[in-house]
Design goal:
The protein is an alpha+beta fold. The protein has one domain: 2-Layer Sandwich (Alpha-Beta Plaits). It contains two helices and four strands. It has a two-stranded antiparallel sheet. Strands 2-3 form a two-stranded antiparallel sheet. The chain is elongated. One of its GO terms (molecular function) is metal ion binding.
């Protein structure tokens, strides 16, 4: 089991230097986690370091394929409220 970086990654370089197992590498179109190297930070940290530092909600999936930082988890703005505000802005 390993974490996975997906297309919403913006290549900000935040995660790569923090990975204790050096499982993250720069690739195109976005960074990748080598599943063979990823230890999920077990034994090193209480929380996966890539997830802890990633500034993009939903860019990293946990081993179950779920967003490790789901929408609203970093901004505090729940997805329903974000959709409502975006609709209001577009209506102007």
């Amino acid at each position: 089991m390993a974490y996975e970086i997906i297309d919403s990654c913006v290549n900000c370089w935040a995660c790569e230097p923090l990975c204790p197992s050096q499982a993250i590498s720069e690739q195109r179109p976005h960074f990748r986690i080598d599943a063979k190297k990823c230890t999920e930070c077990e034994g090193d940290y209480a929380d996966p370091q890539c997830v802890s530092i990633c500034p993009i909600e939903g860019a990293i999936l946990n081993p179950f394929g779920e967003a490790a930082n789901p929408p609203g988890s970093l901004t505090g703005i729940q997805p329903e409220r974000m959709a409502q505000v975006m609709a209001e802005i577009q209506a102007r």
